[in-house]
Amino acid sequence: MYQLTDSIYTTNSWNIKNKKVDKDQIINNGSIFLIGNGYMGYRGTLAEWNFDQYVGCFITDTYDKADNKWKELCNAPNPLYTKLKIGGESLSVFNNEIREHNVQLDLRHGVFKRSTVLKTKDNIEVQIESERFASLANLHLLPMKYSIFADKACNVKIKTGIDGRVWDLHGKHLEKYKTFEEDGLLSVQTFTKEKGIELDVVTKRIFPEDIKFNYTLNKTHNSIYEVLEFNIKKGEKFTFYNIASIYSSNDVEKPLKNARVNCEESYVTSYINLKKENNKLWDELWKDIDIKIQNDPINQTALRFNLYQNIIATPMHSQKLPIGARGLSCQAYQGAAFWDQEIFNLPMYLFTRPEIAKNLLIYRFNTLGGAKDKAIKLGYEGAFYAWISGKTGQELCPSYFFKDVLSGREIHNHFNDWQIHVSPDIAYTVWYYYKVTGDFKFIIDYGAEIIFEVARFLYSHSYYKMDKGRFEFIRLLGPDEYHENIDNNAYTNYLSKSVLEIAIKIYYKMNRENKKKLERIMDRIDLKEKEIIDWEKMKENLYLPEINNKNKLIEQFDGYFDYEDTTPHILKKRLLDPDEYWGWPNGVAVETQVIKQADVIQLFCINNAFDRSVMEKNYEYYEARTQHGSSLSPSAYAIIAAKVGLKGEAFDFFKDSLFIDLDNKNKSISGGTFIGGIHTAACGAAWQIVVKGFAGMEILSGGILFKPHIPKRWESFTFKIKYMDQKFRVQINHKNIIINSLKNNDHFVYFTISDQRYKVNTGSSKIIDYRKDERQVKEWSNADGGKKQ
Amino acid sequence: MYQLTDSIYTTNSWNIKNKKVDKDQIINNGSIFLIGNGYMGYRGTLAEWNFDQYVGCFITDTYDKADNKWKELCNAPNPLYTKLKIGGESLSVFNNEIREHNVQLDLRHGVFKRSTVLKTKDNIEVQIESERFASLANLHLLPMKYSIFADKACNVKIKTGIDGRVWDLHGKHLEKYKTFEEDGLLSVQTFTKEKGIELDVVTKRIFPEDIKFNYTLNKTHNSIYEVLEFNIKKGEKFTFYNIASIYSSNDVEKPLKNARVNCEESYVTSYINLKKENNKLWDELWKDIDIKIQNDPINQTALRFNLYQNIIATPMHSQKLPIGARGLSCQAYQGAAFWDQEIFNLPMYLFTRPEIAKNLLIYRFNTLGGAKDKAIKLGYEGAFYAWISGKTGQELCPSYFFKDVLSGREIHNHFNDWQIHVSPDIAYTVWYYYKVTGDFKFIIDYGAEIIFEVARFLYSHSYYKMDKGRFEFIRLLGPDEYHENIDNNAYTNYLSKSVLEIAIKIYYKMNRENKKKLERIMDRIDLKEKEIIDWEKMKENLYLPEINNKNKLIEQFDGYFDYEDTTPHILKKRLLDPDEYWGWPNGVAVETQVIKQADVIQLFCINNAFDRSVMEKNYEYYEARTQHGSSLSPSAYAIIAAKVGLKGEAFDFFKDSLFIDLDNKNKSISGGTFIGGIHTAACGAAWQIVVKGFAGMEILSGGILFKPHIPKRWESFTFKIKYMDQKFRVQINHKNIIINSLKNNDHFVYFTISDQRYKVNTGSSKIIDYRKDERQVKEWSNADGGKKQ
Fold it and tell me: Which of A412, A460, A464 sits opposite B591 (nearest CB)?
């Protein structure tokens, strides 16, 4: 047993467990013990709970606006609700004496288990056991097993069914409830208020045949329950199964019918077999995605927890849906995608299950319409991707995101109109996908159009400064969100230049190799050759905040260094209210050098063209000024700390990042807005810290570079990567890197280690002592591929 | 007797009077009853008062920072202090019964008079009479006459001298006081804290020789008094004269000596003669500046009050000093110049005393260094004039001007870095001066350099939008200060285009006519021919917010019309604190169409190229949304209302503007900052409302246009103007305009009335019926002079 946090431990590095019922932690544990499959996320709550304990089952693709508030995913009526009475006494972990309580999440197969022994007033000890999973094999299916057992003979009353009393963040989304029983199935049919999306929940409960019980059906306007009353003997175990299915009219035309059929068909398969089907797919996923650490069970578990959360947040089944910033753990951030998706969540898939990365990028292709609408609306051309992107790609980010807690007035934040880097983030990732997979067909079919439209947007957003002879970006927010209304953000400008290079490169490559297809794209999006010339001019003359010759620092944006140089610690003392937003327009950080999160450092995670000394100096400078008020921050610092050889700091930030949710360090409320739930970006970043940070992986123009910095405490770590459709297992210890080309590979790949290039043939292995040389190999990982200093 | 306000009345349209001692009005009346001469401003307080009653004598050219707060003008020790005891009882208007009280300001000669009858506890009625003026003939001189008179024999104790207990807004400016008596002169020598400017006050009191008194000298660290004790008989009048003189080391090398000599020399001249010298100069000023209104004594008086305040605010004697936004009435706005100087204060002089206008513009020439420093500091080229400009032209405007009264935090306003229009305002006025005077020598000696440097600044500030093929101005504040961080402000963009045209025009004119002098300027400021080509490109392609074809509206800035359309009245209800600042960053007006003051309408006051229908539609639209939170606002609306023929509204705004200080409608505190005192811009604008509004004067390329809209109530109004060194008296009644070319003129001038051009010869008059034709004559008044539609 290894304790991960005060209340969470693991027994085998594949599970997390919790023994306490801590009222204050219910909202966090609901997220931490989440099960899901990318279609639904079911919070880690107990079967007898309701909205008071933040019960939620969030369904993908159900974006809807409730009561004219924010558009967000809907929470389905809870089909697993089960409440127990013993001898007429309603059992509750809050009121009854708890003799034993165990909650467990099996990360390997996404199974939630609960076991509680409660003592009644009559001194009966009752054990409740339940288990549930959101099937990876059947995404609409939510099976549960529920047992009770008492140490004395007693009367039992179980109320179980579909409970409408679920948690909603911004108003009630569902209306027109229809609750009914038919053919042994309980159903709740309902519709969303704004769009009228039908969202139906059907459940079938399989009760044991050997126990006789009184049966009643109990209905309210939004719930339907079966109530069973019976007597059990001492030591007799009562177990029932519950097969629930959820469909929306965005999934199928007839959601109710589908849910019913799904339930009936699944019911025929036994619970055990449903679980087997689920487990098999999980086993296959982990085979590709798992990272094994020798000698560090706590961080091994936390790492798997993060990978797990990244997996269940991802709509792997779809090319039309995004990864929510909080996955499917709650409605915060509207269940929709930020730049997090490409920069934080996606790389794990890109190197392990590139087809999932592709799906996510096709989602961006499918939402080009929304991005183009947004651009037009704001006076630009091309694709300005939504800061918060749901299904259609229309901007979901409210203009008034936070509140001034001192005055109670809403704050007009400019995430949705000034934070433009999301567009180059996506375009860059499209190209990154190609660099890793070699899948130029994807570029032709989808990527080119995204990249062209983004280049077009960047051009139309830029200003040319005649007197300085350069293009600039004016009035931005960079990744560091505490500084709005800034010019020439290093991250945005460097990245935009890369994207312009990529766009030009694709244009000329297609012009040579796929001329007709290029013409078709140009025709479709009305792209003129002159625009490519414009992009070339802009690429040549786009202002990039320079590396200062003396101190090697890159200024985060124009004038940043002129701001008050202080620390997050000092700023905290200036708060008049702990919930104050630190940023725009007059939060405590606005006119200081204190930043919310990695910005220049984030740039280094994406662009490998910077010298180690530059990374090191900037790391030192910015880290001291970073509040890490964003869950996106520690991972970037971890990666760059590792890359510059600060192993201890890298490991500390790695742990910080891994434990963001487990420790619940990040606050749930900022500027009056709930922002809790699972920080899926950090979950995705966990993979990157290990592979890009500790293994030091960079993609070169024709191969892969590793420059390991293994944490001291680890004996070794092992992960898999897929590159150009070839799978490799990579193991790194304190001396060697061992690269295995797996069986089914069909061609060799070059690996660069310590400045030396190694050819690793199909099915073979290479053991390379990476300590030989500490010199650096520099290369662009994005546009050009050519060596640059 | 005509009542101007509740408490202020006039007896002859040349004075204002007040009979009440109202504690709440002391601060306002101190400003209203101000005397001054452009060198000093002495507040309208009683001789026995001190800082508690906001006593102040503000001295020009003494900008200094106190206690590390704001740089502002200094308040000299008060040399007129005189306190009375009768029978041991200290007399006070607050404690004694007031039998009679009269305070009067003689506007014609700038003389303050006071007469008070107080009753002592012993039932003695004591009359105090005093009179003072700040000499226009001897700017350092502040003579006073003081008498007492009692209805019973009594013992009198008079304490009179230089009192250091004066009002300071932001900390104590003076230190190292030296107080002494020598040769019958009392002196206080003192130094400013920051710059060590020596500021000395010397006073000589001339007591009557026929009354015997006990004499004591009384000194504190910052004050020196003479104390006289004597008995007077019933009905006996005791009068003394006080000749005070004030000098600073910025005036002369030895201020103390100069003050002493000045005192001694003036003392030889009798008080009566000093007054005569003063009155004579005033009479001459009024001969040129006065506007006579037939049949409206109240507004006649108020108008004269405004002209008077504009006069005493102006450092007419200097080419190195500005007009403060509050003149010399207090330290608010730091005693320094805003754009108000050129756009509001100066035109009155330009058409009556152009040499004073010239001085003010030479001040801008002399502060080019400060403007260029500011430009460099903010990353621009050329001259970016200070938003608040003292002697050196260095920026005095604090970055943190207002306070968020809800949180107590300072607000970072951007008056000093984003409100760029001050530079084109000045450059435009330089050209305007030339258009009215024909003084091209001034352009060669001073104006060209100002205009070139401003054009240079505008070019370096602008951005070129490649995709739209146009220059833009980004991140501005226009005249309407509630909207910061806006793009393409109509006022700024139109005006800037005019200035570019002017710069180009001057360049080519000098290139033809004054090539060597042009070369010398170009050499001195390192101006390249290429820059003129750049300006031409910019002029051609500078984006101007268009007149909407349908509704004729001009958008105040990009996106203005998208803001919430509401009214000042509604916004007022949203205030959480009455002192809240309405503007940046999150005041109630920021995201609405409510504006603080005229902006597009102000543009029409400067640029005559807009059709009447355009002015009319915009007037209607913007007026409904204007809070008139600035004293600069009503005058612009008055002028444009008059120009479009809305006589009633024009007259209402005229009165609003005239009574801004008399009525004390504008609040003294906004966002925690004292902004009271005399609104000199409105005072200067009063002249413009009459001449540009009611007379409809516009300057054409070769002459003057009048298009009168006389207020209904007036029989006629008469004013003088000087144009091309020719003086004219213009009288307008409801039918005719009568133009008299005065005696000493030496050439004819063309006047355009109702689309017809009239030649008015030297010494002749023309009576023209202006009602014939209501058609408009359009012409640019600034750069081009050519007719434009």
Answer: A412
Supply B141's token pair. Answer: 């001189």
Is A320 in CB contact (< 8 Å) with chain B?
A: no
Residue B466 to residue A459, Cβ atoms within 8 A: yes
Question: Is B526 an interface residue toward A (CB < 8 Å)?
Answer: no
The token pair at B542 is 């500078």
CA distances to B198, B199, B247, B262, B514 from B255, rounded to whole Å, are: 7, 7, 5, 10, 43
DSSP track, A679-713: -HHHHHHHHHIIIIIIS--EEETTEEEE-----TT
The residues of A annotated with a catalytic role in the active site are 481
Nearest-neighbour CA in chain B from A41: distance (Å): 39
Please list every residue in chain A whose beta carbon sits closer than 8 Å to the beta carbon of residue B467.
Answer: 381, 459-460, 534
Tell me which amino acid residue B678 is: I
Please report, rounded to a whole number, the percentage of residues in chain B having pLDDT higher than 70: 97
Give chain A positions within 8 Å (CB) of B538: 466
Mean pLDDT by 10 residues, chain A (789 residues): 95 96 91 98 97 95 89 96 96 96 98 98 96 98 97 96 91 95 96 96 93 93 96 93 97 97 91 96 98 97 98 97 96 93 98 98 98 97 97 94 90 96 98 98 98 98 97 98 97 98 98 97 97 98 97 98 97 94 93 97 96 97 96 96 96 97 75 81 98 97 95 97 98 97 95 93 93 47 34
Cβ distance A641 to A619 under 8 Å? yes
Q: Output the average pLDDT for chain B.
A: 94
Report the candidate in B371, B735, B313 with the shortest Cα–Cα distance to residue B525. B371
Q: Is the Cβ–Cβ distance between B654 and B698 less than 8 Å? A: no
> What do you get for the CA distance between the two ends of chain B, in Å?
49
pLDDT at B786 over 90: no
User: Distance between CA B289 and CA A272 in Å, rounded?
Assistant: 102
Is A536 part of the contact surface with chain B (CB cutoff 8 Å)?
Answer: no
Cis peptide before B315 (omega within 30 of 0): no
> Hey, what are B638's tokens?
């008055």
Compute the residue count for chain B. Answer: 789
Return all residues near B513 (Cβ < 8 A) that are at least 6 apart: none
Query: Residue B787: which pLDDT band, with cuts at 50, 70 and 90?
Result: very low
Sorted by sequence, the CB contacts under 8 Å of residue A780 that are 6+ apart come out as A498, A607, A608, A609, A786, A788
Longest dimension (CA), chain B: 90
Give the whole-angstrom CA distance, residue A27 versus residue A30.
5
Q: Are B273 and B266 in contact (CB under 8 A)?
A: no
Separation CA B436–CA B450 (nearest Å): 18
Interchain pair A463, B464: CB under 8 A:
yes
B585: contact with A, CB 8 A cutoff = yes
Chain-chain contact of B465 with A467 (C-beta, under 8 angstroms): no
Sequence-separated (6 or more) residues with CB below 8 Å from residue A273? none
Q: Does ipTM surpass 0.85 in this model?
A: yes
Angle of CA points A654, A655, A658, to nearest 5°: 90
> In the structure encoding, which two tokens stand for residue A229, read together?
């009353």
B482 phi and psi angles, rounded to 5 deg: -80, -15
Q: Hey, is the C-beta of B472 within 8 angstroms of any chain A C-beta?
A: yes
pTM: 0.92
In angstroms, the separation between the Cα of residue B176 and the nearest Cα of chain A is 35
Partner B, chain A 451-470, Cβ-Cβ below 8 Å: 459-460, 462-467
Task: Find which of B462, B463, B468 to mutate to test the A interface (most A CBs within 10 Å of its CB).
Answer: B463
Where does B659-750 have alpha helices with state H? 680-688
Give the tens place of pLDDT for each residue, B634-654: 999 999 999 999 999 999 999
Cβ contact A538–B466 (<8 Å): yes
